[in-house]
Amino acid sequence: MALLKPELYGVREGSRLAEDPEWEDVVPIAHQEPEGALAAIAYPEEYAEAMAYLRAVMKAKEHSPRCLRLTEHIINMNPAHYTVWLYRAANVFALNLSIPDEIAWLNGVALRNLKNYQIWHHRHLLVEHYYPQLSLQGPSAIAEFAASEQSFLRDILAEDTKTTTSAELAAIETLLDDDVRNNSAWSHRFFLVFSNPAHSTPGLAASEPDPKVPQEIVDREVAYAMAKIRLAPQSQSGWNYLRGVLVKAGRKLATVEGFTNEFVKGLGEDGEGEDVRSTHALDLLAEIYAERGDKDKADLALRRLGEKWDRIRVGYWEWRRKGLEIGAEA
Amino acid sequence: MPGLRPWDDRDRAGLALEVAGGVVPRTLTVTSGPDPGLRPATTGPIPSQTAKTDPITSPRGAANIARFPIADDGTWNNAKQYFITSIVPGFPPSAYMPLRTKGSRPQKRVAFPWKMTTTTTPQQAQGQPSRSPPSPAATALPRVTVTDDDDDGSDSVDEEIVADPISNLGFMIPDIFTQLPLIRDELVTKTSIEQDETVEACLPFLRGDDDFFDYNEHGVPELDRERHIRFLRQCLGKLPGRFVAADASRPWFLYWCLSALTMLGEDVSSYRNAVIATARSMQNETGGFGGGGGQLSHMATSYAVVLALALVGGEEAYDVVDRKAMWKWLCSLKQPDGGFQVCLDLTPESPAWKEDGSANLLTGVSDYIRRCQTFEGGISGQPNAEAHGAYAFCALGCLALLDHPSSCLDIPRLIAWLSARQYAPEGGFSGRTNKLVDGCYSHWVGGCFPLIEACLAGGGATDSDGTKLPPATESLYSREGLTRYILCCCQDQSKRGGLRDKPGKMSDAYHSCYVLSGLSSAQHQWELDEPTDAATGGDGAATAAAEPAWTVFPYLDGPQVFAPKDRVRPIHPVYAIPQQNVCAIQQYFQAKQGF
Fold first, then answer.
1. Are residues A264 and A213 located together in one domain of the fold?
2. Which residues does UniProt call coiled coil (chain A) (predicted)?
3. Domain that holds residue A275
């Protein structure tokens, strides 16, 4: 990474703006908290001063290198300050600054503040702004930029495996290999596979069947989900994924009945005869039975969930049983 | 001051809380101590700990001793077997509500005769699914392994064995809240380690092992109102410098604290002038409210400010809102995809809905929400993201205002997803699949159920095939489980007070608000009465104009594991503030011509 320009990036520690000749011409607007204000914060001096200068330059609609540095100074103290971030973006665009430089700076901030909405919104604004310029330079420039973005995403994912935004299926598979219970990774996989413009219908809800999805992709995803479910059958993520894939493909749930039965033995038998290794399998079996009109078996599965295997959710299982009666009447 | 009774929400708009005759008063007379709802609005001196806990002199302690005499012997082993899972038919819950007091934990506890002779039969349990059903083993098989006191094998957990039968001896705690789940995978990953650690942290609180609390006979501590109130009042005061990170969220502190105080029975109208001044300092001429003075208007902070103004009430507070400017500002946030951005970018290219007269503020909103429902059944913050509890509540609340939720959501899948958020033994809700329980989801997920129940009750809800969905005549989630998680695990037991995410976490204003909102929801039952033609004299226009009316009842089915004095005030299922505050501000603005 090239060194960032010091007139744009970097905060000088311990320097007071009031004593800085660069800020001489600005009259800071001090914070006026009304009498008896609630939840008023006793701002540290440095923060209060920086905010006073920010108010002044924002009011004057100034866009300048010193404003950019001021925003960095405030972001260091309070990265959740959405107003400062938006003002920073306005400066970057008004000064026509190098987007790669700004992204390089942002990467450092992002890695220090993993759970922050602003870093992602700022990135979003930068990329949207940069893309038209980039397209003029041709496909290789776009590919290079995409590669650098992916490299950053790998870095941040290594820091926070829950923040999965990688555009690469392989990266998601790595996350699921590390922890098959990582639901964010499952969720993102679904997006990558089933919202891919190459083979999906735009505008469909996640639960609507999409005839554009090729059968071989459906087969692949069903097989993938099954393999992962076998590792931890009581993890719901894989089951939700499997069910989601079947619905997307417009396939009957019964197409996975054999697999689901691997986890439920002797349903309804006394004593040790009944062996359930996954409540989610039993739940899916209940749906499969209901799907083909076998109301008694569906009812048994739901009853056993409420009685024994998943008692905290008994209210829900009982509601599902009532639904079977209505379904039978219809 | 009847208006302050936690369960009594009679209000001037006539939306009276109806109490089934005699039930509540009976429980009130039986439980100890004065009803805190009858105390003055201002916080009085806190009763001294000795007066509160002396088992002999306090009425509560006396009741305790009188009702549960300690047996001489011979019942010791029997007592161990009665981890009670059942409510005894015909026995009012209040009769076994007295609190056991700190320092008075009996060395030997008796096998209560009625526990020994009466158990809920499976038939009864099936008929009453909202109650915690006994495991079939409860009646058919020896369910609890009784070990000698010095047997260290009692902690070895193998699926169905209750660990540590000594400490929760005598408490009526269904075993699902004291044991590990029946099915556990062997594979260890980061997620399963964190889950196991969470269960381990919660279990002592759920089993009544924690020495700090006074537990009632259900193994549930009381709601420590005084401490929480003090904590919340502090959060509204001057905050120390480390709160700089919250400088863009100050309006939230107003809403969280005022809402939590209100639910705890406090009168917050004394904050009116301060809220008005604070709100004005955050208001922009363009209509919205920012996180503080000089900050850009933001949808979230504007929401919080408006709710805070409604909570303190009064025309002067309502008039702070510049409705015309706010309407324009909201319109400027409208997006072509039907959604909204939360804040206007300072860049000219910000894409907004073209003002060509073809759309209004609400155009495409339902469809946008439809696209936010994920393959899991839950709702995400934007299309194609991960389903998350907070968005489920926001989406349902929004649809409840606009439309019938089943018109654009797959309701059975949403209910399946919401239900799967509740875990045992913790009893609380998680925000996402395979994530940990957190007290705040008591509201974000728990608060969805009144909306779902209303959606089902109308009979208009169907699944994707058009099959009618049954009404939720019983609770769709375990209210007992949620109540236990909140009262056992989410109360900060230090002097600090306040409510929290889970044991080991610090309390804060955010969790205090949403944990109490969840408790309120678990303690009440809401019904939505759609205006009918008969009610409006068959006038179609009047029918359209009439608002559906929500009616609230204390929830009295199933085990009442908390004392009636611990019932907090009900809040409106959509707006999450008391119903009379909603009515008052709506009436004020409806009476105005134009803006």
1. no
2. none
3. 253-330
pLDDT of the residue at A150: 83
The torsion angles phi and psi of B154, rounded to 5 degrees, stand at -70, -20
The reply to whether A330 falls in a domain is: yes
pLDDT in tens, B13-46: 222 222 222 222 222 222 233 333 323 333 333 3
B394 interface with A at CB cutoff 8 Å? no
Residue A145 lies in a domain: yes
Residues of B acting as catalytic residues: 388, 432, 435, 438, 440-441, 501, 508, 511
Question: For residue B497, which phi and psi values (nearest 5 degrees)?
Answer: 75, -170
Contact in structure between A284 and A267 (CB atoms under 8 Å)? no
Q: Are residues A21 and A153 in the same domain?
A: yes
Give pLDDT, residue B529. Answer: 83
**Interchain contact, B133 vs A306, CB within 8 Å:** yes
Q: Which two tokens stand for residue B374?
A: 């994920």
CB B208 within 8 A of CB B106: no
Q: Could you tell me if residue A175 is inside a domain?
A: yes
Query: Would you tell me how many other CB atoms lie within 10 Å of the CB of residue A79?
Result: 21
Chain A residue with the nearest C-alpha to that of B185:
A232
The partner residue sitting opposite B192, judged by closest CB among A44, A181, A276, is A181
Report the distance separating Cα B53 and Cα B56, nearest Å. Answer: 9
Contact B244 A330 (CB under 8 A): no
Same domain, A177 and A155: no
Of B253, B296, B371, the CB nearest to A86: B296
| Residues of chain B contacting residue A241, judged by C-beta atoms under 8 Å apart | 375
Same domain? A169 vs A220: yes
**CA-based nearest residue in chain B for residue A53:** B294
- Phi/psi for B484 (5° steps) reads -65, -45
Cα(A318)–Cα(B129) distance, integer angstroms: 7
Crossing angle between the packed helical segments A139-159 and A117-136, to the nearest 10 degrees = 160
Same domain, A205 and A79: no
Residues of chain A contacting residue B235, judged by C-beta atoms under 8 Å apart: 39
Per-residue pLDDT tens for A61-115? 999 999 999 999 999 999 999 999 999 999 999 999 999 999 999 998 988 887 7
Q: Taking CB atoms and an 8 Å cutoff, what residues of chain B touch A31?
A: 293-294
d(C-alpha B47, C-alpha A143), whole Å? 70
Min CA distance, B509 vs chain A (Å)?
A: 11
B277 at the A interface (CB within 8 A)? yes
Considering CB atoms only, which of B192, B427, B474 is closest to A315?
B474
Last residue in a domain, options A251, A266, A301: A251
Would you say residue A3 lies in a domain? no
* A170 and A241, same domain (yes or no): yes
Say how many domains are in chain A: 3
Chain B residues whose CB is inside 8 A of the A205 CB are: 370-371, 373, 410
| Whether A41 and B374 lie within 8 Å, measured CB to CB | no
For residue B128, the model assigns a pLDDT of 36
Specify whether A149 is located in the same domain as A210. Answer: no
Last residue of a domain, one of A135, A159, A183: A159
